[in-house]
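Notes to self, Winged helix-turn-helix transcriptional regulator:
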Amino acid sequence: MATQLPTSKSDTESDIEQRNADVCNVVGSIEEIGSKWKLIVLNDLRDGEKRFNELKRSTGASSYTLSRVLDDLEDEALIENRKEFESPVASYYKMTEKGSALCPVFDVLDEWGEDWL
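result:
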């Protein structure tokens, strides 16, 4: 049986878009949470709210890296920052509802890693 060639360039583009429609959400998700440090911080915050220095110790990130990652995660509404201005001044970070929705994904990735890495 012969394969029918597309009749126009738009037919080809349409077919490609249709085939890749399911991939778009995966790609978009990875772009939002896909850096090593973002994943490490999000995974660490699964245990609950933590202060900046607690996150620094538990993740091993430098102050600069951690600060940059926390700002990015906050901009993406995956975490929230609560500040206490009493002495000593402290910043606390915890996952938002959007961030917490990633917990089952971490569980599945952990299982996959145990099987394949």
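- Residues 9-33 form the longest helix (25 residues).
- The helical segments are 9-33, 36-44, 52-59, 63-75, 97-100, 103-116.
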